[in-house]
Design goal:
This protein is mainly alpha-helical. The protein is built from 5 helices and 3 strands.
Length: 182
């Protein structure tokens, strides 16, 4: 039986294995909570008010309503973005469940957890308000505003590159995106 098949059996028969996977759900929930609290604080303290300058001419907090995705792409396409988010989340969670047990795959689990937390954090805003609250602003380069969930997604994207280039060999991740029955 391939290694990832034990993940399915583990869900049903091995409580310890299930608990090892569920801890990532707890961590993701904590990250989502941090994202939502940060956005709540920004709305309460910055909506309709002046920016908070943290480092003059470098870094500010500025309330922005983003009805698109990264860099305001797909602006006004909320239904499309919600469907896309649900599809990507479903796929990532499905693949997360298939990750074999063992310390070797902790970086991959953390990567997927960050991606899920960031996607859900922004999805909550889209469903609740029809836009995502962004607020971090780097002044010198006029970088698009972003939020905590965006940081989780960006770190996950960097980690995906890192783990696939420097940590895992091709055979280590052959189970991913492999839908053939063995």
């Amino acid at each position: 039986m391939p290694a990832y098949a034990y993940a399915y059996a583990g869900i049903l028969y091995n409580g310890v294995y299930v608990m090892k996977k569920l801890i990532y759900l707890v961590y993701a929930s904590i990250l989502i909570f941090i994202d939502q609290v940060s956005k709540y604080w920004i709305v309460a303290n910055l909506k309709g008010k002046e920016n908070i300058v943290l480092i003059k001419k470098v870094f500010e907090l500025e309330y922005v309503e983003n009805d698109g995705a990264a860099f305001s792409s797909f602006s006004g396409k909320q239904v499309f973005l919600l469907i896309l988010t649900v599809v990507i989340l479903s796929f990532v969670i499905f693949e997360f469940i298939r990750i074999p047990e063992g310390k070797k795959y902790i970086p991959l689990r953390i990567t997927f957890m960050l991606l899920v937390a960031g996607a859900i954090g922004n999805m909550i805003d889209r469903v609740k308000q029809g836009y995502v609250v962004d607020f971090f602003y780097f002044v010198p380069i006029n970088f698009p505003r972003f939020n905590v969930a965006d940081i989780f997604i960006t770190v996950a994207a960097i980690m995906i590159g890192w783990v696939f280039i420097f940590i895992y060999k091709e055979e280590d991740t052959a189970f991913l995106f492999n839908f053939k029955k063995n």
